[in-house]
Design a protein that fits this description.
- The structure is a single chain.
- The protein has 21 helices and 14 strands.
- By secondary structure, the chain is of the alpha/beta class.
- Helix 4 links the parallel strand 1 (about 45-50) and strand 2 (about 80-85).
Length: about 575
């Protein structure tokens, strides 16, 4: 039996009573061409749409909103499209991570302040997915997520191109002089061929896979390419399902548990997903009142096999993944490592959703008996350089560098990095460790994706293609290399990275999970006394709010006042 009745709908408070205020709501709806039968006694479904002309990943979401509306109407609901801030990874500066929490706040407050009984969240580009989910979890109305979907495979001279991974690969070759300007221009024209997110297992597809595994999306939704005809069908089905969810009163915190978050972590590891997922999952769990830690990621990584043979750690692209069976097939293969009784938006359990899912290409999606890697999708490092933790993706690194010591080449900020990195006089060799600081949540600010530090040009020309690189920044999920990221606490707030001097020996041992500088405690104490904090660059506005309330990477980089599940009263309607 439905849990909701017509008069218990949240929207009834706006439209239903015989009051002056409700007269105003109904009359203004009439001014937009609506009649009372359109919304009276029906669930009002807010379609939070992050479409933008400056977000190519979402360029098809105007149409997908119409597909969702069709489904909502068919199920007896009243759809209302509500535009929200779009976080366009390729254009927005200094970084979309700066604005993830702003979109989360906007999503929560849009849903609180308007007559919404449930919502459909449209997004997919890296930070949009966690932001929309964070806001929806905090508001805790029935919610379903419609992922934007990956774009089609890129192409250049008969070779498949993948976003990010091949950009970095060929940019290195361009800087090394191995490819010419004409080839580079052809790659530019061939790498992005349709609407949709990056077609590698970067942050976008990692996070939409997280959303599906957590139970926020219909089964298989995260794998469908953006321009495939099954994508609008999925959007329409999502519109129909959200109306049912409102009547059932099925809300985000009804499906989110410690077990569902462990499932999401396991999925990230089995996909060899983006390191960014660590930060976002910590933030999502915090909104649900669930505590996750970096150590839980590390413990799970040691026993979770990598089953997806996808770039940047593997061979294939998201289109291949979809044809091979998509996320349901991978989760079915991974099922011995999952809690299958977790609830989802379908009203069925995760196990029921993936029952019978098949793998159609066993090289793209592997079985647990023949994984791409036995374990180690991510590793959490600690030591006197990162007492709060740091993250590395070992399987995307040169194996010979996973245990390494070398002399630090230290860049104090991103501008200095760009000024010095290709200087022929830079005293660097292949054994050096490149270090970037002041690139974290407060230092950059916003923790941009600067962690894939470029190899010095003179080393590229000598054939070097990977080095140990360390920073308090993030890295695009589409990138690869021996990159130690998210060093916490960050250097800007006085973390040990701030005390490292050029020439100090840095020691990395991924197997032992250690990241240290070979500097005595006495010397570090002396340097700490001499250290002076940097100056905040935002005297006012959102930037000031960000700097005052952002937490560190090991805490999810949420605002400290947004975490938790403390109730907020419904708005008064006078």
């Amino acid at each position: 039996m439905p849990k909701k009745t017509t008069k218990s709908l949240r929207s009834y408070r706006w439209y239903g009573p015989d009051t002056l205020r409700s007269f105003g709501h109904r009359s203004r709806a009439a001014s937009m061409g609506c009649i009372e039968a359109d919304y009276s006694g029906k669930p009002v479904i807010a379609i939070i749409n992050t479409w933008s002309d400056l977000n190519p990943c979402h360029s098809h979401l105007r149409q997908r909103a119409e597909d969702v509306k069709r489904g909502v109407w068919q199920a007896g609901g009243f759809p209302v499209e509500v535009p929200a801030m779009s976080l366009g990874e390729t254009f927005q500066k200094p970084t979309t991570m700066m604005y993830r929490n702003l979109l989360a706040m906007e999503t929560e407050e849009l849903l609180r302040s308007y007559p919404a009984d449930g919502c459909v969240l449209l997004g997919g580009c890296d930070k949009n997915t966690p932001a929309l989910l964070m806001g929806a979890i905090s508001m805790n109305l029935p919610a379903i997520f419609v992922p934007a979907g990956p774009m089609l495979r890129g192409n250049w001279r008969g070779q498949c191109l993948g976003s990010g991974a091949d950009v970095m690969k060929y940019w290195a070759e361009r800087r090394a002089g191995s490819i010419d300007q004409q080839a580079w221009m052809e790659i530019e024209e061939g790498i992005a061929r349709s609407a949709g997110t990056c077609m590698t297992m970067g942050t976008a597809s990692t996070m939409t896979s997280v959303a599906e595994t957590l139970g926020f999306s219909l089964p298989g939704a995260s794998s469908i390419p953006a321009v495939d005809s099954n994508h609008p069908k999925m959007a329409s089905r999502s519109g129909r399902r959200i109306v049912e969810m409102v009547w059932e009163d099925l809300k985000p915190r009804d499906i989110l548990t410690e077990a569902s978050f462990r499932n999401a972590m396991a999925a990230v590891l089995a996909l060899s997903g983006s390191t960014n997922a660590v930060i976002h999952l910590l933030a999502l769990a915090g909104r649900a009142g669930i505590t996750l830690t970096l150590d839980q990621f590390d413990q799970l990584s040691k026993k979770t096999p990598v089953l997806a043979n996808l770039r940047p750690s593997g061979k294939y692209l998201m289109e291949d993944f979809y044809y091979a069976g998509g996320l349901p097939a991978l989760l079915h293969s991974l099922s011995p490592h999952l809690a299958l009784d977790c609830a989802t938006v379908t009203g069925r359990t995760l196990g029921e959703n993936i029952a019978g899912a098949e793998i159609y290409n066993s090289d793209v999606i592997r079985s647990v008996d023949q994984p791409v890697f036995r374990s180690g999708g991510l590793a959490i490092l600690r030591g006197n350089l990162a007492p709060g933790g740091a993250v590395i993706k070992p399987i995307a690194a040169d194996p010979r560098l996973l245990k390494h010591s070398g002399r630090a080449i230290v860049f104090d900020d991103y501008n200095q990095l760009n000024q010095r990195i290709d200087d022929p006089a830079l005293d660097v060799d292949a054994n050096s460790v490149l270090v970037l600081r002041n690139a974290g949540p407060k230092g950059a600010p916003g923790m941009p994706e600067w962690g894939n530090l470029p190899i010095p040009q003179k080393l590229l020309k000598a054939g070097v293609r990977d080095m140990v690189r360390i920073s308090d920044a993030r890295m695009s999920g589409t990138n690869y290399g021996t990159c130690v990221l998210h060093v916490s606490p960050e250097s800007f707030v006085g973390g040990p990275l701030a005390l490292l001097n050029e020439g100090d020996i840095v020691e990395l041992d991924v197997k032992e999970r250690r990241l240290n500088m070979r500097v005595s405690e006495e010397e570090l104490s002396r340097r700490r006394l001499a250290w002076r904090p940097g100056r905040a660059i935002y005297p006012r506005g959102y930037g000031k709010l960000f700097l005052e309330h952002i937490t560190q990477a090991d805490q999810g980089c949420d605002f400290d006042f947004l975490e938790g599940t403390a109730p907020i009263p419904e708005p008064e309607i006078h």
